[in-house]
Amino acid sequence: MTREGALPATDASSRVAACQDRGMKILVIGATGTVGGAVAHALEDAHQVVTAARRGPVKVDLEDPSSLDALFGEVPDLDAVVCCAASGPLIDLESTADDEIAAGIRGKLLGQVALAQRAVRHLRDGGSLTLTGGTFAAPLAGGSLGALINTGLEGFVRNAAEELPRRLRINLISPGWIRETLEAMGADGAGGTPVSEVARAYVTAVEGTAQGQIIRP
Fold first, then answer.
1. Which site among 21, 35, 51, 136 is 20 to 30 Å from 179 CA-CA?
2. Domain count of the fold of the chain
3. What is the DSSP letter of 120?
4. What's the CATH code of the domain at 88?
């Protein structure tokens, strides 16, 4: 993971001018993953992109609220936050222990809710937050926990959009299978969406005017 577009420590007016030249200042969480890396790459030509993940120069863990607090202290003055660090495990409904289910909910669902709470306090006026859910075209073996989490995220985003102050926006990208992920698993990638197409959905959410939308690329 790398930190892109870092600005030199010059006077305030120079920093403002540099930010304007680079478009928005955008934080991409989970940029070491397939989707996160593609999103960061799709944004970096037009914007100042800062990437964060569990490992690397800018660290964050959605399961650790203190790391979220530290993140926004380290990366201030953001126009947009994009969260791609949102994987959920497949489980066996009959045999999975309660604490394993709780851990799955804590990471993808509650972690993104905690991120949203902090982003609301730190984003610039008119800024945006883009979260990541998921879509199952049909019931999936082991997918009950994922369905619970994704449905919860959809409800959260729709309602939060009506509560946000300062013209802030929130949206949810809910892709299905990613072609490159299927291929990495040794499966046929034809049933998946190319990651470049998924990344474009994130870019549209960041650069557009959508509010409270569930976007399924």
1. 51
2. 1
3. H
4. 3.40.50.720
Decide if pLDDT at 179 tops 60.
yes
Q: Max Cα separation, the chain? A: 60
How would you list the strands of the sheet with 214-215, edge to edge? 48-52, 25-29, 78-83, 123-132, 169-173, 214-215
* 7 within a domain of the structure (yes/no): no
Q: At 154, which helix (H) or strand (E)?
A: helix 144-160
* Interstrand relation of 78-83 and 25-29 (parallel, antiparallel or unpaired): parallel
Are 198 and 217 a contacting pair, CB within 8 Å? Answer: yes
Per-residue model confidence (pLDDT) at position 143? 78
Asked whether residue 134 is domain-assigned, the answer is yes
Q: What is the pLDDT of residues 138-147, one digit of tens each?
A: 777 777 888 8
The chain-wide mean pLDDT, for the chain, equals: 87
Range of the domain at 174: 12-215
CB–CB of 107/88 below 8 Å?
Answer: yes
- Report whether 215 contacts 171 (CB < 8 A): yes
Cα–Cα distances in angstroms (integers) from residue 22 to residues 4, 98, 123, 137, 154, in the given order: 11, 47, 17, 38, 32
